[in-house]
Specification:
The structure is a single chain. By secondary structure, the protein is mainly α. The protein has seven helices and two strands. The chain has a two-stranded antiparallel ribbon. Helix 2 runs antiparallel to helix 3. The longest helix is centred in the last third of the chain and has 36 residues.
Length: 210
């Protein structure tokens, strides 16, 4: 029953909104351009920057919701970072149109404790995203300065020709000298065996002739 009432209210809201648009009481909501370069006036660029900031504020409030599951927390954090990139594009466009440089004069993003929002390689973590598996450990490693344990992929990338011994001849020459001495001993041994065989063959031929 409650669900049907919600549907009815939603339909009534859409009907009244359509009436307002048709009568001119309300203007249709503009959609934010996907590319900042499509806007040619400073006022419009400022307007869409403010629009992005409103979306960021709503998303940051959402990511603090204790009822959100982990997947939605990750999605919300990704959305905030996407909006931050969009905000940066609009700020670049504002500078191109002769407006202020908000990247220089604007405040830094701070969390609810007044600290700068932490991140890694430009990616920021907000609200409950800072407590996700792997994220807290990342911040602890950054704070302590301890190097993280190398993964298997990172270890494989470090393997080069020296790992397989291809550069051993460039060490200090000892290996080459050892190999040379062993080779010379083997050659002398083979020559001695060959000469002994040749002498035995000659003596056998001489006995046969007598």
């Amino acid at each position: 029953m409650a669900r049907n009432q919600e549907k009815a209210q939603s339909m009534l809201y859409r009907f009244r909104e359509a009436q307002s648009l048709e009568s001119g009481l309300r203007k249709p909501k503009e959609r934010r351009p996907h590319l900042a370069s499509l806007v040619d006036t400073l006022d419009d660029a400022e307007k869409w920057r403010r629009d992005v900031i409103r979306d960021i504020t709503r998303s940051v409030s959402k990511i603090h919701d204790l009822s959100l599951p982990e997947t939605q927390i990750r999605d919300a954090n990704d959305e905030i970072n996407r909006l931050l990139r969009a905000k940066a594009h609009w700020e670049d466009r504002i500078v191109e149109l002769g407006g202020p440089d908000y990247k220089k004069i604007g405040p830094k993003m701070l969390d609810h404790q007044g600290r700068e929002v932490p991140g890694n390689r430009g990616y920021k973590y907000f609200g409950r995203a800072k407590d996700l598996p792997g994220v807290r450990e990342l911040f602890e490693e950054q704070a302590t300065g301890r190097p993280k344990k190398a993964t298997k992929a990172e270890l494989l990338r470090r393997i080069d020709a020296a790992y397989f011994g291809y550069n051993d001849e460039n060490d200090d020459g000892e290996l080459l000298e050892y190999e040379r001495s062993v080779t010379e001993k083997r050659i002398r041994k083979l020559r001695s065996a060959h000469d002994a065989t040749f002498e035995d063959s000659d003596s056998s031929d001489a006995d046969a002739e007598t």
